[in-house]
Amino acid sequence: MKRGLGVCYYPEQWDESLWASDAARMAEIGLTWVRIGEFAWSRMEPQPDQYDWGWLDRAIATLGAQGLKVVLGTPTATPPRWMLDRHPDMLAVDAKGQTRGFGSRRHYDFSHLGYRAECAKIVTQLAVRYGKNPHICAWQTDNEYACHNTVHSYSPAARTAFQNWLAQRYQSIDALNRAWGNVFWSMEYASFDQVALPNLTVTEANPAHTLAFRRFASDEVVSFNKLQTDILRKHSTAPISHNYMGQVTDFDHFATGADLDIAAWDAYPIGFLSDRVQASPADKRHFLRQGDPDFQAFHHDLYRAVGRGRWWVMEQQPGPVNWAPWNPDPLPGMARLWAWEAFAHGAEAVCYFRWRQAPFAQEAMHAGLLRPDSAPAPAYAEAAQVARELAAMPDVARRQAKVALVFDYASDWAWATQPQGRDFSYFGLAFDMYRGLRRLGLDVDILPPDTADLSGYALVLAPAIATISAPLMAALTAFQGTALLGPRTNAKTAEFAIPVPLPPNLPGLDAVVARVESLPPDVSVPLQGGGAFHRWREKLEGTAEVVESTQDGLPALLRAGGLHYLCGWPDETALDRILTHLCQGADLPTHPMPHGLRRRRAGDVTFVFNYNPHPVAYDGHTIQAADVYWSRP
Length: 633
Ligand code: GAL
Description:
Blueprint: E1 4-8, H1 19-28, E2 33-36, H2 41-44, H3 54-65, E3 69-73, H4 82-86, H5 113-130, E4 136-140, H6 156-170, H7 173-180, H8 207-235, E5 240-244, H9 253-257, E6 262-267, H10 269-275, H11 281-286, H12 295-306, E7 311-316, H13 334-344, E8 349-352, H14 378-392, E9 403-406, H15 409-417, H16 426-439, E10 444-447, E11 459-462, H17 470-478, E12 482-485, E13 512-518, E14 524-526, E15 532-541, E16 545-549, E17 555-560, E18 563-566, E19 568-570, H18 572-585, E20 597-602, E21 605-610, E22 616-618, E23 621-623, E24 628-631
Parallel strand pairs: 1-2, 1-8, 2-3, 3-4, 4-5, 5-6, 6-7, 7-8, 9-10, 9-11, 11-12, 12-18
Antiparallel strand pairs: 13-15, 14-15, 15-19, 16-17, 17-18, 20-21, 21-24, 22-23
Helix pairs in contact: 1-3, 5-8, 6-8, 8-15, 13-14, 16-18
Beta-D-galactopyranose binds at residues 143-144, 147, 266, 268, 315, 321, 323, 353, 363, 366.
């Protein structure tokens, strides 16, 4: 597999006289990929049904003439203004019932059939025209599904589609009433067309209703994406990708991923640390210009799973972005380090966003590889350096990690629907566990929730899976290694009721969750071995072996053979100790890492990344701030 570096480019935003020199400079610094097209609908189809392909033909030819491989995006994230005259009701509606208007992007409703038909038309046009073009080496569908909170719409189109979805799933309204427990508060329905969307209720809607809506909304994204991939595949054999995001869980990426060839994601480490990563104020300051040392790696590993091995970074932060609460400048070296970290985790390509900073519109304050005056911005030289280093470095083999973390989008919806404690976040717990593994210097594979085979892994973590799938349950039963489940494992049926017999219902583990409690941020439950549970703890009854207890004398960690159940959300101290203990039991060597240093093995190469703003001595080497070090045995 040949790895490549690339860039996102918007020929329609620049005078045509610039294209040839832009393409020549891209090739000169060693870029091999260029993504174009994903927002250019108003130039592809300036008037309804009147297409203008001349400019795009020339842009592709200009880029191709420099040997650049083009990723062509379908433009469906930015329908032109005329589309609204044709389909005035195609706009999404927010949970407060307000229509989301024109004037930015993603102004569409996944359920609107008229808009879907327009998407099918423009994608067919693109696929027919460029499907066999030798320069088109990959596709991207739409752009960042879910961005700007666009998966959940409360429009009339969504309501009709939801009712149809419910009728398919439940077949009879009595079955729906029973499944949701609608006898509670006299919520029973007489027909599917009485079921509204779960917004604007007086107090919270029935969580089963909300969860059904979340499942439906995810399915809508999947079918919207499949509409496009089906068309592209009829006319092209180039691989199809979509660019996913960081910490976005509103739809099941494994389900969209099944219809795609490559999972790509958009990595903005400093923006993420500013606007979404949970970190202490001290760490937010310490990593201000570098980003969280685990957040990128988590998504690299997640999207490697979503792409069934094939994944890219489609957009890589090159300098300050415009959209986070604060937008610091990356430390010199970070634009290189981030790219190398992606390659170390198996990325096929990393594309910087974007080529030249636009002096106009919403992203005028967003850096590119070039400044608006076309002079190189700092990341330009770093990209060139990565390209030289890539060319000099032999390809490294991929291999299965020894540790796996199961990640389940549906559990994120379940616990977002009924968190029971304000700060209970499935993503947060899964990411905490991932961070704990990385502090021990371990490589991690992320696995989908229907994984049927765990062989080859020594340690498998599957926290807070609301309903364990039958294949995963069978795999856990057959698993010879060490597994860590809980808290909240199997705590809901598929219809979001509490199962009886009570959870967790795990093979061989004689224990039931008798009581749960959530805790405010300043309260925790100390463990006898050190550290504490915070946010969430469970009180379990039964005869299962107690490995660890809380200081108040209740089980904290239970065990049946290799299967362990964790009875709360551990803080960093508790988690590090418990993971170390499990690794010892599993004969798994650990490499505890200094603060801000992370390690990743790829084939026989060991990479070490220094996310610190200062040099660190490690393994006999001094690794400079924002630098990456690699070695072979
Ligand atoms: C991404 C998006 C790009 C651009 C970028 C700015 O979310 O896909 O189009 O807006 O952010 O950082």
